[in-house]
Amino acid sequence: MNIEEKKALVTRFAKIEGHVRSIKNMTEEERDPETIMQQIAAVKKAMDAAAKLIYTEQMKDLIKQGETDETVIKKKIDSFIR
């Protein structure tokens, strides 16, 4: 992962962190459950996008390393999917 990608990922996690804090506050304030659930769904989507980015970078690294052993590749993929 290059520096720009790492910065983008860290920024993404900071936004997610703020979003989660907002959900916590909304819960403490006993806000509308539907609104809270919408915000939780947004956080889930953002986390999935971050995970996809990390997974993509891992696969790029395997390709750059010239990894061809299917067992090694499968283990890497399986460890990421869990």
UniProtKB/TrEMBL annotation:
Name this protein carries in UniProt: Metal-sensitive transcriptional regulator
Gene3D superfamilies (alphabetical): Metal-sensitive repressor, helix protomer
Pfam families: Trns_repr_metal
Source superkingdom: Bacteria
